[in-house]
Design goal:
Length: 260
Amino acid sequence: MAEQPILELRGINKSFGPVHVLHDVDFAVYPGQVTALVGDNGAGKSTLVKCLAGIYHIDTGQVFFEGNEVHITGPRDTAALGVEIVYQDLALADNLDIVQNMFLGREMKKGAVLDEASMERKARDTLASLSVRTVKSVRQLVSSLSGGQRQTVAIAKSVLWNSKVVLLDEPTAALGVAQTRQVLDLVRRLADQGLGVVLISHNMNDVLEVSDNVSALYLGRLAATVKAKDVNRSQIVELITSGRSGSIGLSAAEATSTTI
Ligand SMILES: Nc1ncnc2c1ncn2[C@@H]1O[C@H](COP(=O)(O)OP(=O)(O)OP(=O)(O)O)[C@@H](O)[C@H]1O
């Protein structure tokens, strides 16, 4: 692939005491592309994301952002790079409206008072730029939103601050068919706007539908990174469950080095 990754992890190792969870993991995110991060329960997806988020300290390995090595010592470092993470539990406050949620902790002010008009306009513009039309009013309480609308607001919040990379942890878990459709469309639009998008998902249909690349973790090791268009559902399942990519016709190492 000619294009440079916007974010690249190289040789990441992470242990919790005697438990070695991540083994020399390489992972790359490209601008304008969706990269799925897949793996069975316990494969190490959340640990990798938390290392990137600055929640866990990386034992060894390197992180590069826009080609330069960076050192992530805490969540602020990740946010300062323009890397946002939307966790599965969403962390939206039910008792606040959409604008208040989107600006929570980063409120715009005019002098000493909140600049409600500007925040409202920016919230509306951001939703419009993502072609989100399902939300009636940005002054709606989040408690009144459907699961899909909540996910949409959480994703829109993550791109408010000129983010360059967005990681989405199971964004379609627990959503119905129509809501899943809306969220997958939104995931694709983020990439089409030039962001590097990481999709963590157990749903292989979702993965194959919106992803450009698929990185599979198996027992804390990168089994392979493949082009989504080159694989089918059962081949990804094979990577996830056995760590091998035999039916793709490449060894895991070859798949990693030759297809991305
Ligand atoms: N704080 C911790 N202390 C010890 N072991 C941990 C810790 N966090 C995770 N692990 C172990 O690391 C391994 C990877 O867990 P992780 O949560 O990263 O997997 P995952 O791929 O995100 O799984 P899931 O799909 O179930 O969320 C598991 O074996 C888990 O028990």
